[in-house]
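Supplementary Methods S3. Input chains for the assembly prediction are listed below.
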Amino acid sequence: MTTMDKLCELIMKLKKKGLSAEDLKPEADLRNDLNLDSLDMAELLIMSEEAFSIKMPLDDAAELTSLRDAADYFDRRMAEPR
Amino acid sequence: MKPTDTSFRIEPISPENAHHVGTVFRAIYGESFPVRYVYQPDGVLREIEAGRLVSGLALDGDGLPAGYVSMFRVSPNARLWEAGNMVVVPRYAQTDIALRLVRYGFDLLMDPVIDADGMLSEAVCCHYFTQIHTANIGMADCGIALDQLAGDSFKDGKSNKAGTDRVSCVIGFMEVTDPSGPEYMPAPYEEMVRRLLAPLRPRALSPSMASLPAEGITHQDETHYASARTWKVSVPTVGRDWPEVVADLLNQAAQRRVISLQVTVDMACPHIGAAVAELRERGFFFGGVIPRRFGSDGLLMQTLFDRETDCDAIKLYSQTAKDLLAFIRSDRETVQGR
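Predicted structure tokens for the full assembly:
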């Protein structure tokens, strides 16, 4: 499973009935297209930290715009030496 | 709207903008928010003028109200402030205005004009947002009040992400001044109390060895939140009548159909060990510390009536809070056999 797949899975879990798989395009804006509000973003931050085994600074989370941004960010962070 | 839209501004409440406060609350709660002065510009200004409230209003680039943040003084220590409302008009929920309001509230706390010992926060455990942001500005998690709020009070249908019928709260604290005077700890809680207070300023803590006082009567202040079925009692002085006082609290709680009864005892009281032993005998268990509640710290004990807490649904961010919940569950099992 790719990072993008995993991220989409987390977002679907988060939004439950509110989204379909077709909405989850790489260019989709997390806030405006996927309607993730500030509570959802906090939830996604916690779920992503667990799923990708990284610690995510709040400022980094605020910078993420699209689904692709987020997947790239997690790929980059997971590739960093630990 | 961009997540970091720079066109927002946050400004203090003034006679010119006070009418916007009601607009913000109406956008979220309609006319049903229980603190009525938020709908009355004069009421908001009166609270500020009296020194009971400090607050800020967020406006968008067109000057429309987008959010509101406030802090208010907490009895019985007039130098203690509590993070109050932090509300965002739903159409701005995808922006970072909530984060900016949190930071604005933090800056208010540091303003010498408000003369604070520190700031308390009660972060709900049905989502992570507030806990993440209070941790981010440096607040320490010091307690967990189990099942404090009614789940159906979250009327927007979105904020209660845990979906439980009761919502617990993490008590956070940021300290501004040094505490003074000795404080005492009940034996069963020494280790956890030291851990919870470790991130704050140094304190003179020692074990409580004294038995209940032979003289004097107990003093208490109380706030009953009838709609939440929560009753908070602060005890600055423990007297020889303490066992009767505790029995009376339990009787009254039953009559009032309380779900959450919270009793906070002043840790400057040398008799706190014996007072807490009496509470544990009656089924109260540990909740944590409410720093500077009395000027000195308060030890939070709590009990729940006919209620099993859904601990697995409690969303906690910090490791301290997670460890504290485990400790609370263990203490509850010890005193209540559940």
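DSSP finds four helices and no strands in chain A. The two ends of chain A are 22 Å apart (CA to CA).
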